[in-house]
Write a structure and sequence with these properties.
Mean pLDDT: 88
Order of helices and strands: HEHEEEEHEHEEEHEEEEEHEHEHEEE
Protein name: Glucose-methanol-choline oxidoreductase N-terminal domain-containing protein
Number of domains: 2
CATH topology of the largest domain: Glucose Oxidase, domain 3
Cofactor: FAD
Organism: Vreelandella sulfidaeris
Distance between the termini: 24 Å
Strand content: 15-25%
CATH class of the largest domain: Alpha Beta
Number of strands: 19
Pfam families: GMC_oxred_C, GMC_oxred_N
CATH superfamily of the largest domain: Glucose Oxidase, domain 3
Family: Belongs to the GMC oxidoreductase family.
Length: 361
């Protein structure tokens, strides 16, 4: 597993240089000592240009161990309890109900969306919700499923005056060559997710830590590959790092296959709106730096006529979208449950106890 620092397009370095010219520092490692500034983005890619996912980076090796059994095509239903002690899980696999019991502890790692649902189905959650769904309460913990948050972002797009963007890669007649280079050499456009430079900045001096984050892409396109600008272009993805808006996740049924009720409650706080207005104006200033002079064409989005707060807000309302980074109150609520009997190991962010599952989110 590697985190390559080299880039395959000059626009990545241009973005970093423009950030420096706008008065921000350069950082060699945004996940290291100094996050604030512009620098290369860590990417989990193998030396052969393949995505190093959790499965490829860890499970492909760990699955050979004699003390690990991996069950696939399985849906966790509930955590089994003896009193208030978690002893195992009940799950469904290929239409059949299964059970697994723990000798030491149960680890809940269902992520931000699934973990609170599993807890609620297991009888851990808001007593009113559990009663409504006829779920026997194991422990009253109203915060489970609350405090849902996510990263929203938007694209600030420009045409590129030089023919160096990834636009040709969208043409079908270029894609066989791209695929072949990746397949046989592990190099080229196909060996990258194309997010190779980024930035973390403070929107104002009143902010102690960076509150805006950037990802740079040397093409003007949407996440789903549609709505591509039919010309050479580039874009900066930008959004708030710590939105104050909070939502929730709640069960709608005891059936583990039933869709939950999810309310992200995006942009519910005025500070979120102000940060997005600041983000657009600060991004325009970065792209206006001399480093981009030879590349910067017309502003595609929001567009040069979008200037007032009301106009910026309308753009955000229409174009902001999720960056797929949800987080929710599951782990924290579990910590609060066991905290009276726990001893915390702060470096590992682990709390020891024997009476309940340990949650990762």
């Amino acid at each position: 597993m590697t985190t390559p620092k080299s880039s395959n397009n000059p626009l990545y370095r241009t973005f970093i240089e423009a950030g420096k010219q706008a008065g921000y520092p350069e950082t060699k490692d945004v996940n290291g000592y100094q996050q604030e500034g512009f620098g290369p983005m860590d990417r989990f890619v193998t030396p052969k240009g393949r995505r190093s996912s959790t499965a490829r980076g860890y499970l492909d090796i760990a699955k050979k161990r004699h003390n690990l059994t991996i069950e696939t095509h399985a849906v966790t239903d509930i955590i089994e309890f003896e009193g208030k002690r978690a002893v195992g899980v009940r799950y469904e696999q290929k239409g059949e109900k299964q059970q697994a019991y723990a000798r030491r502890e149960v680890l809940l790692c269902g992520g931000a969306i699934a973990s609170p649902q599993i807890l609620q189905r297991s009888g851990i959650g808001n007593p009113e919700l559990l009663k409504e769904l006829d779920i026997e309460m194991v422990h009253a913990l109203p915060g489970v499923g609350e405090n849902l948050q996510d990263h929203l972002e938007m694209y600030i797009q420009y045409e590129c005056k030089e023919p160096i963007s990834l636009y040709p890669a969208l043409k079908w007649f270029n894609q066989p060559k791209i695929g072949a280079e990746w397949l046989f050499n592990g190099t080229g456009v196909g060996a990258s997710n194309q997010f190779e430079s980024c930035g973390f900045i403070r929107s104002g001096d009143e902010e102690e830590w960076p509150n805006l984050q950037y990802h740079f892409l040397p093409i003007a396109i949407s996440y789903n590959g549609k709505s591509a600008v039919q010309a050479h272009g580039f874009q900066a993805h930008v959004g708030s790092m710590r939105s104050e808006s909070r939502g929730r996740i709640r069960l709608t049924s005891k059936d583990p296959k039933a869709a939950p009720s999810i309310l992200f409650n995006y942009m519910a706080k005025e500070k979120d709106w102000q940060e997005f207005r600041d983000a657009i104006r600060l991004t325009r200033n970065i792209i206006a730096q001399p480093a981009f002079d030879k590349y910067r064409g017309r502003e595609i989005a929001p567009g040069p006529d979008v200037q007032s707060d009301a106009e910026l807000d309308a753009f955000v309302k229409q174009h902001a979208e999720t960056a797929y980074h949800p987080a929710v109150a599951a782990a924290w609520e579990m910590m609060k449950w066991r905290s009276p009997m726990a001893r915390a190991v702060f470096m590992a962010l682990r709390v020891y106890a024997s009476s309940m599952p340990r949650s990762s989110r």
